[in-house]
Design goal:
Layout (H helix, E strand, L loop, with lengths): L9 H8 L8 E4 L5 E6 L2 E5 L6 E7 L6 H16 L7 E6 L2 H6 L22 H18 L6 E10 L8 E4 L10 H9 L4 E4 L7 H9 L2 E9 L12 H12 L13 E10 L6 E2 L10 E2 L4 E5 L2 E4 L5 E4 L10 E8 L8
Parallel strand pairs: 4-5, 4-6, 6-9, 7-8, 8-10
Antiparallel strand pairs: 1-2, 2-3, 3-5, 7-9, 10-16, 11-13, 12-15, 13-14, 15-16
Helix pairs in contact: 4-6
The structure holds the ligand O=C(O)CCC(=O)N[C@@H](CCC(=O)O)C(=O)O and zinc ion.
The ligand O=C(O)CCC(=O)N[C@@H](CCC(=O)O)C(=O)O binds next to strand 6.
């Protein structure tokens, strides 16, 4: 396969509109000796000419209408193919939900980011099939990190609502004694993220899957707000683009963060919608991280009322229209981190 199938946004374009082009795996070696393996529509593995230092998964478009990260990743792939980015690490780049991108929707049948860690079993929706393929591909990718190389996964998203803190990260629950990493706070802060949300329990998200299954440093990175393709203000993503480029092209890009400048929250309540008459009790345009006084009614459904349990409890990802049983609201409270890993 020659580079015309990959350059100038062609990989994403063909993956979306002529996925059969990539029905068979194909490989391309660039003049700078970087190898690009096309594993499936929307999935490429990039191997540096030099010995790979880190194993980095960059995923985007797990929700099809979250376009800014898709545009960033596609541009990065173009730059890799053109040779203006020369990778020093092994990269698995994933464009998640291709049909949902074409429909301009979050998903076609169901939310793919609730289908990992085996939750895709017992069904055959397009999202379930894709989640299984993504799990298998990530497993094969990290299995090659036999020398104990650093494993990283940044799952890039944008949020439905405005947010008081425009860029924030959901850090998957670390139930295995691992501590959050100072180096990762540094990298994410360099991307423009100033707010971190520590999960309190396992989930079925993509970033939790990589974190729990492969001991990767995994993150859901919210880079801004959902907008259609072509309508993103790329100035707002300049720091994220530059830092992601530095991450893949420098041997060990390790900017430091000043922890006292970062906002850290922990999840206090995970409120799942159990009834069709689930309602939120704050305005539709209340941004993420709006906080409330103790006792304020936040959400209700027949048989249950959900209130702020403490002063300063803030809302994140409110969505009354999620499928029954799914998360309709997270509440978070400020916290501090006593100890970090390197
Ligand atoms: O803005 C929203 O309501 C959703 C944005 C989004 O897709 N967020 C992710 C977060 C995943 C996580 O908790 O790690 C999601 O809901 O899947
Ligand atoms: Zn998303």
């Amino acid at each position: 396969m020659d580079s015309s199938f990959l350059a100038n946004g062609q990989f994403l374009h063909l993956s979306r509109f002529q996925p059969e082009t990539f029905a068979n795996q194909a490989s391309l070696t660039l003049p700078n000796h970087t190898t690009i393996d096309i594993l499936a529509p929307g999935i490429v593995e990039v191997t540096p000419a030099s010995q790979a230092g880190k194993f980095i998964v960059l995923s985007c478009g797990v929700h099809g209408n979250e376009t800014a990260p898709i545009e960033i990743c596609s541009d990065m792939l173009d730059a890799i193919v053109e040779g203006t980015i020369i990778v020093q690490h092994k990269i698995l780049m994933i464009f998640g939900n291709l049909p949902a991108m074409n429909a301009g929707e979050r998903f076609i049948e169901e939310n793919m980011n609730r289908l990992f860690s085996g939750a895709h079993q017992n069904g055959s929706s397009p999202e379930r099939q894709r989640a299984k393929l993504l799990e298998d591909t990530v497993a094969q990718f990290f299995a090659k990190a036999v020398g104990g190389e650093e494993r990283l996964h940044y799952d890039l998203h944008t949020a439905i609502r405005d947010s008081k803190n425009d860029k924030f990260v959901v850090m998957p629950y670390l139930g295995d004694g691992r501590l959050p990493s100072a180096k990762q706070f540094g990298f994410l802060a360099a991307c423009g993220v100033d707010t971190f949300l520590l999960s309190s329990a396992p989930t079925t998200t993509f970033s939790y899957f990589s974190s729990a299954q492969f001991k990767a440093r995994g993150f859901t990175v919210e880079l801004g707000k959902v907008r259609p393709f072509g309508e993103n203000d790329m100035r707002s993503f300049a720091a994220a683009r530059a830092s992601l480029t530095a991450l893949v092209s420098e041997t060990d890009y390790a900017p430091a963060a000043t922890m006292s400048e970062l906002l850290v929250y922990k999840v206090n309540q995970v409120i799942n919608r159990q009834h069709k008459d689930f309602a939120l009790h704050f305005s539709d345009d209340a941004p993420n991280f709006t906080d409330f006084k103790q006792g304020t009614l936040l959400a209700s459904e027949p048989g249950a009322e959900y209130v702020a349990q403490q002063d300063g409890e803030a809302i994140v990802f409110p969505n009354a229209k999620v499928a029954l049983g799914q998360r309709a609201l997270l509440t978070v409270v400020p916290t501090t981190l006593e100890t970090l890993d390197v």
